[in-house]
UniProtKB/TrEMBL annotation:
Pfam families hit by this protein: Peptidase_M19
InterPro entries, A to Z: Metal_Hydrolase, Pept_M19
Protein's recorded name: Membrane dipeptidase
SUPFAM superfamilies, per the entry: Metallo-dependent hydrolases (SSF51556)
GO molecular function terms noted in the UniProt entry: metallodipeptidase activity
GO terms under biological process: proteolysis
Amino acid sequence: MIIDAHCDVLLKLWDDKLDFATSENLQINEQKWRRSPVKVQCFAIFVPPNVPQESQFQAALEMVTLFFEKIIEPYNDIKFIKNKQDLLALKEHERGAILTLEGCHVIGNDINKLKTLIQLGVRAVGLTWNQANAVADGVGEKRGAGISSFGEEVIALLNQEQIWTDVSHLSYQGFFDVMGQAEFVMASHSNVRSLCNHRRNLDNKQIQALIDKDGWIGVTFVPYFTKNAEVVTYHDTIDHVLSYISLGAANCLGFGSDFDGIDKYINGLENVTGYHTLTSLLQQKLTPQQWNNISHQNFINKFPKNR
């Protein structure tokens, strides 16, 4: 059993009008998902920044509709996960789907829009994408500011509603602001910066802060977050898992593939079925308890919304 905390299937369904059931242009479609060991998949609402501000929330709602109409409703054995009890209640033959938000730019400065998305089922909220918004600066913003006053209001709401605050894509200052304010933290798809010096990866200070906060971290399959090389393989992904463990993050670790959010692939991890190979090799390198925790149990243990 594997839980994957991040993919961008909804963006492709919305932008490219693809068929979730069979489209070969998806790294995760219904058929590939069923052939993989992934039992629970998180589906991110990500509205591209080129969408006009006045249309962004509408686009987010359209992605929510696609989530239910294309992923949940057609299949009796794919269950909408709203809380930890839903996770624990999944039967052996069932799979789970969780709704997340990647970037609060879609809510502008209107907290009620975020409340609406939470009511619709969003269970993890990435405060930014790479750019700045009303909540905080993203990792690509030159000024590198932290959380705004409105951002503090957003985090307070997430704490109250028992929703994960996701720090992937957040500015460095914003990351540490979140560590001081959020009760439930995750980095849904970020790798180890000491292995690959990319701005989206976590340095040792950030990793330790997430450990101290009892947070959750998803190893991601973005090749340029994994190794600065022309060819990147699943062995390089394993290096990030082992590095996180060596830094003390074994009880915080999991996976956040970013499938369908990337146009270059790691060799052996071209789509969700690649988890079979990754699983086989990791189980040779980890203890059974470590694998059990990293594959799914850490995510379940830390899932903030109990019921």
